Amino acid sequence: KNGVNGWYAKAILLIESPNQLQKSTAGAYGPFQLMKGVARNYGLKVNKKRDDRANFNRSAYAASQLIKTVCIPYTKSMLDAKGIVYNEEDLWFRLLVMHVYNAGAGNVSMALNAIPQPAVGMGLIKQLWTTSAGRFQTSSQNYSQLILAAFLEYDERVDKKGK
Asked: How far apart are CA 57 and CA 130, in angstroms?
């Protein structure tokens, strides 16, 4: 409904809160694991009495706004600055957007800048898996690997149910 490819929501839900609401050690909460400040920036109420991050529809809208207004534009900007050609529908581009969603644009930018010769496509994603910079550390490096594994598991379970 918000003009963001549903693939992103599926990826986040498979990784962040499968089957239950969880709160991260960093303070992210809800099915889309939004931080308080981000949630408030996108119109959610977060206080002692109410936490809209637990509301699926409201947090889905906030997450889609974050992806549409921050994650995708910053990803494009970072790639443009490196002269890397992309297609927004490519899996590797989507995975890079998800790294921005998870780690933040600044941390992903530091990681990209730490790669002497960035590859193109999935090669770039694989380089991120072994690159540390700023707060882009192990959990950030592994994020797209978790997404890929979750999609494989999901597809396998759906295939089994269909047979």
From this structure: 35
